[in-house]
Amino acid sequence: MKRALFPGSFDPLTLGHVDIITRGVTLFDEVIVAIGVNADKKYMFSLDDRKSFIEETFKDEPKVKVVTYKGLTVDFCHEIGAEFILRGLRNPADFEFEKAIAHTNRHLSTIETVFLLTAARTSFIASSIVRDVIRNNGDYTKLVPDSVRVKP
Ligand code: ADP
Questions:
Q1: Pocket lining: 9 vs ligand 1, CB cutoff 6 Å
Q2: Contact 108, 144 (CB under 8 A)
Q3: Cβ atoms < 10 Å from Cβ of 27
Q4: Cβ contact 29:2 at 8 Å
Q5: Radius of gyration of the chain (CA)
Q6: pLDDT for 43-56, tens place per residue?
Q7: How far apart are CA 144 and CA 17, in angstroms?
Q8: Which residues are catalytic?
Q9: Per-10-residue mean pLDDT for the chain, 152 residues long?
Q10: Cis preceding-peptide flag for 12 (omega within 30 of 0)
Q11: CATH number for the domain formed by residue range(s) 3-148
Q12: Do the bridges between strand 3-8 and strand 84-89 make them parallel or antiparallel, or are there none, so unpaired?
C-alpha cells in the first residue's frame, strides 16, 4: 500500500491544498492529511475546526484520512507506515524552503518527499493570505472550499 503523508497547518484549508490532495489521491493508495500541532504557534482556527474543514471537503473520498500529530514528521511517518511525504510547490521561495526540509528528512530517514507543482489557478493562494482577507472582512470564499466558513 502506497501511503503518503501531507503535513501542514491548514489554518485554514485552501483550494491550493485541495488541488494537491486531489491529485495526490491519483498517485497514492492513501493520502493522510496530517495537521501538525505546535504549542508555540498561534492559529486563527481551532484544531477541531481545521480538522473538520478537511474531513467535510473529502467526506466522499475514502482514500483521504485526517489526523493530528506532534513531533518530527518522519517519526510520525514511521509510526503510521507512510513511506512518502507529499508537498506542494508554488514558487522559488517554496522550493528553497522545501528543499532544506526534504534534505533533512532524507538525512533522518528513508522517507521520500514527492512534490507536486501547484495548479496555475491556485498558485497565488496561501493560508496566510486567506487569514489576512478574513481579518479585513474581505471575500475569502473563492480561495477556500465550501466547508471553510468563518463563524459569525
Ligand atoms: P505550513 O504550515 O508547513 O506552511 P501549509 O498548511 O501552509 O503548511 O501548507 C502545507 C502544504 O501545502 C505545503 O507543502 C505547501 O507548500 C502546500 N501549499 C499551500 N498552499 C498551496 C497552493 N496554493 N498550491 C500548492 N501547494 C500549496
A1: yes
A2: no
A3: 13
A4: yes
A5: 15
A6: 999 999 999 999 99
A7: 9
A8: 17, 41, 90, 127
A9: 97 98 98 95 96 98 98 97 97 94 95 96 97 97 96 78
A10: yes
A11: 3.40.50.620
A12: parallel
Query: Position of cell 482577507?
Result: 133
With a threshold of 0.90, does the pTM exceed it?
yes
Supply φ then ψ for residue 151, to 5 degrees.
-70, 135
Domain ranges within the chain, ordered by starting residue: 3-148
Specify the length of the chain in residues. 152
125 lines ligand 1 (CB under 6 A): yes
Return d(Cα 32, Cα 1) in angstroms, integer. 13
Q: Is 90 helix (H, G, I), strand (E, B) or coil?
A: coil
**Contact yes or no for 43/127 (Cβ under 8 A):** no
> Which long-range contacts does 42-48 make (Cβ < 8 Å, 24+ apart)?
43/9, 43/11, 44/11, 44/12, 44/131, 44/134, 45/11, 45/12
17 lines ligand 1 (CB under 6 A): yes
Yes or no: say if 69 and 34 are a contact pair by the CB < 8 Å rule. Answer: yes
42/89 Cα distance (integer angstroms): 24
Residue type, 41: K
Cα–Cα distance measured from residue 11 to residue 139, given in angstroms and rounded to the nearest whole number: 17
